[in-house]
Amino acid sequence: MDWTHYRFRTLWSLPLPPADVYTALERVEDYPHWWPQVRSVTLLDATTGILTIRSVVPYDLTLTARETRRDPAAGILEVVMTGDIEGRARWTITPDGPGTTVRYDQDVDVNKPLLRRLAVPGRPLFRANHRLMMRAGRRGLLRHLEAV
Questions:
Q1: What is the DSSP string of the chain?
Q2: Where are the domains of the chain?
Q3: Which of 20, 43, 98, 100 is the most buried (most CB within 10 A)?
Q4: 5-147 in CATH: which number?
Q5: Which CA distances in Å does 7 have to 33, 41, 89, 109, 110?
Q6: What is the 3-state secondary structure (H, E, C) of 28-58?
Q7: 130/16 Cα distance (integer angstroms)
């Protein structure tokens, strides 16, 4: 087993229209306004940006995300990432009754030296850290969209 490789899947159920959710998620530059763990986003061009993320565990992850797919009709947003983590992430937004189901899939390798050194003993903590970040993202997105 490669202890520095992670696969995450998160599901959010939101009582909001899929188009509104999709629009909010495609505007990555706005994430720091509603997602506390996304500390900064610097757009480099229309499809690439640098993100700094920090959750409960006191370390920053800096990564460059480049869009590889933006498909509003299919409800898909996908990026490749390089930097402290390397791999792919994908949002899939689908109608669910009067609301929306959001699925987030991430398949990454950790490159940050400290996290690589702590890979075995820290793995449960890193996974819990990710879960907490995703919960906060759901709450933040919900508040953000309800305020609009």
A1: --TTEEEEEEEEEESS-HHHHHHHHH-GGGHHHH-TTEEEEEESSSSEEEEEE--SSS--EEEEEEEEEEETTTTEEEEEEEESEEEEEEEEEEEETTEEEEEEEEEEEE--HHHHHTHHHHHHHHHHHHHHHHHHHHHHHHHHHHH-
A2: 5-147
A3: 100
A4: 3.30.530.20
A5: 26, 23, 10, 9, 11
A6: HHHHHHHCCCEEEEEECCCCEEEEEECCCCC
A7: 24
Structure tokens at 115: 């996290």
C-alpha span between 18 and 8 (Å, rounded): 22
What's the pTM value of the predicted model, to 2 decimals?
0.95
